[in-house]
Amino acid sequence: QLERLGERRATNLVELTARDLPPLDLTIPGADDSLLAGRRIIARGHFEPAGEIYLRNRAHNQAPGVHVTTPFAIDATGDQIWVVRGFAFAPDGITPPFVGSPQSGTVTIAGVASSFPMTEDAGQPIPVEGKTSYRRLDATVARQLEPKSLDGFVYLAGDTGGPGRLPAVLPPALDEGPHFSYAIQWFGIAVAMLTFGWLVILRPRGGRESAPPPAAP
Q1: 45 - beta bridge partners?
Q2: β pairing state of 149-156 and 80-89
């Protein structure tokens, strides 16, 4: 757990450093070479709703739903980037009864870049009424669905009045997670086990004194 805590802190430091950089304009060829997690980005192009997918079992203001994730074609370069354009309510966390369409035509988007998670199960796809629901969107799936997609995706900034026209999904908080508290718990368990072992197993056992024979009458 302490090793994972160190990895989490290192990752957070990289993202915090990226957020201090000026916004990255993806309309400039080669700009995606600096597409670091946490980097603010801008791009001009158009959404492609036909390739849209849902990331299931998400929540927003304690309501269940999905993160609507849509390919975005960058007009100047021909590249594509996956955009988490917002949250849609779904009572079962999988099938939203209604998902508003993104703004059509050429638009300018802004958001925060993130790296794809590592998975070994292709994101666990489930067909949902013409769309596909995934638990996660990893790099392999992203490239299979959109071969021109960049090595990262974007959390779209804004609200229902912007190009995505859905309540915005914020990037994950840069906290240290539960690793430190887990480490404390494991240390506590180890100390308790050692103490128990010393008291019950390792402590020398003294023989019981035999009872004195009964006195002669």
Answers
A1: 74, 107
A2: parallel
End-to-end Cα spacing for the chain: 71
Pairing of strands 53-60, 131-134: parallel
pLDDT for 162 beyond 80: yes
Of 200, 181, 180, 202, the closest CA to residue 2 belongs to 180
> Cβ(113)–Cβ(34) under 8 Å?
no
Q: What pLDDT is recorded for position 6?
A: 59
Least confident of 18-27, 72-81, 146-155: 18-27
Given a contact cutoff of 8 angstroms between Cβ atoms, the answer to whether 133 and 178 are in contact is no
The 10s digit of each residue's pLDDT in 149-160 is 998 999 999 888
Single-letter residue type at 171: P
Asked if 155 contacts 171 with a C-beta cutoff of 8 angstroms, the reply is yes
In sequence order, the 6+-apart residues with CB closer than 8 A to the CB of 78 are 148
- Please give the Cα distance from 104 to 178 (Å, whole number): 42
Q: Using DSSP bridges, classify how beta strands 126-128 and 107-114 pair: parallel, antiparallel or unpaired.
A: unpaired
* 136 vs 123: CA distance, rounded Å: 5
Average pLDDT for residues 32-54, to the nearest whole number?
Answer: 88
d(CA 217, CA 206): 32
Residue 1, both tokens = 């757990």
Per the DSSP assignment, residues forming a β-bridge with 127 are 132
Q: Which residue carries 């958001």 as its tokens?
A: 111
